Amino acid sequence: MILNPAGFQNRFLAHVLDFIILFIVLGMLSQLIYGVFYSNEEFFITDLVSVFYYLLLPVFWYGYTLGRKLVGNRIARVDGKKVRIGTMLLRHWVAGMFYVVTLGIGFIISAFMVGLREDKRAIHDFIAQTYVTTDPPGESNTDYEE
User: Fold this and answer.
1) For position 65, what pLDDT does the model report?
2) Disulfide check for 90: which of 33, 80, 128, 141 has CB 3.0–4.6 Å away?
3) What whole-number distance in Å separates Cα of residue 102 and Cα of residue 52?
């Protein structure tokens, strides 16, 4: 059941805030470890932190990332169960591969879907059976159940 879906602007702002937070934190971490704030080289540790941020933080924090928490939205499963690592892998990596294979057209269609659909679900939401809601966990849903 989809309750109080978050709209395009709300979701976009959460992504911008997550980007800014990660940019600053990973830049400072990179400065401490490698001696440069950012570089064209790939850094294993900072990449790993980024992956954990997007995949694991929502699993442990009821669908929130820091940016999502700040704007008041979170990822929830359609069936009301708690978000798991498999859900997040589907949502980010499988959907990401779909967007790459379609040369970004799927991403553009997803943006229109969030803006125009009543349930505000994008392609990655359908792939992972999720939606983004403004409801906190536990209110009119069953996020605490297995």
Assistant:
1) 96
2) 128
3) 26
